[in-house]
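Marked as duplicate of an earlier ticket. Keeping the data here for the record.
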Amino acid sequence: MRHRSQLILTAVLTTGALTLSACGSRDEGGDKSGDKGNTTVVIGVDAPLSGDLSAIGIGIKNSVDLAAKTANKNKEVPGVTFQIKALDDVANPSTGGQNATTLVGNKDVLGVVGPLNSSVAQSMQKTFNSANLVEISPANTAPELTQGANYAKQKERQFKTYFRTATTDALQGPYAAQYAYNTLKLKTVYSVDDKKTYGAGLARTFRQEFTKLGGKVVATDHINPDDRDFGAISTKIKNSKADFVYYGGEYPAGAPLSKQIKDAGAKIPVIGGDALQSADYVKLAGKNAEGDFATSVGAPPEQLDTAKKFIADYQAGGYSDPYETYGALSYDAAWAIIQAVKAVVNDNDGKVPSDARAKIVEATQKVSFNGVTGQVAFDEYGDTTNRTLTVYQVKGGKHTPVKTGELEK
């Protein structure tokens, strides 16, 4: 029905009293009330829920689900019940673009968490922006998504609806370079990337800082992210005599690359970004993962007092899969949307307004709260104001944090 609200009066003669019950529905952005008079607000989730990167994607979905359930349990926004709608993008930009259209078409969706991959984000941003639908990624790190392709010379906000709780590779790549050169005292690197938006961009920012510090890039090479046989490039790496390999890409290819480099006789570490910091990296590379490094955005949740409740609630929530690399950042992304909804509802006499999407975008820009990962807020480009990074080393079959801080200027 097209009515913004419908009042159904039911007269029930009970001990001489007349009982009135009100039911409403929301269409085209109006009010939608359930059986208890609550408005249902849907938070979309886009992530790889199947395929090689599903371990990370499921952790994202579960963490958003936990945020929605927590908000409902605590009645964070009186009169609003949060639900999630999770779509699988299989880490494919085309599928992500289709998912964006689907989420925009669901009028109950007032915010989206995701995606994982920067290349997928590029296929979604315009669709969400045209629909005034806020999108917060817990994992995208390509700087151009917020600051434009020419960000190194002149930053320019790209889409008012796009935000992220993960810091960018403009910081992550150089942070790894400083650790490799200054702390590990490694002077020569063989650079490899998977040619994708995330991997190529990350490797580029690493190389720029590494050479600036005095390091030498002995070779720059590329692989197909779908390949698993890296015998030829492993031999080239061994013959290069490089001190280490920097890999810009994700763990499904990065792990077998590391294994085959060591099998070829090059007993040198592989260093990469946050897409290597997964338990599946160690599973796939086996004992050859030992000694490898990965930087990641944010501080280790296990070391944060602010994350203790999240970790306990996640464990108590009965999720069969771990929250993985981006779980805490996903929870904070969902909570930012929830807080934006709360601000909009509070400003509209406790109801979801007809132009909720546009107002939620504006409210998200002003969001500020103490989250799982620390203070959550966004700068003028939509980037997180939390610029903390962590270096992990694989020790005893696990990624172990060895340094947490910010990029040295």
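See parent ticket for discussion. Confidence is low (pLDDT under 50) at residues 1-35.
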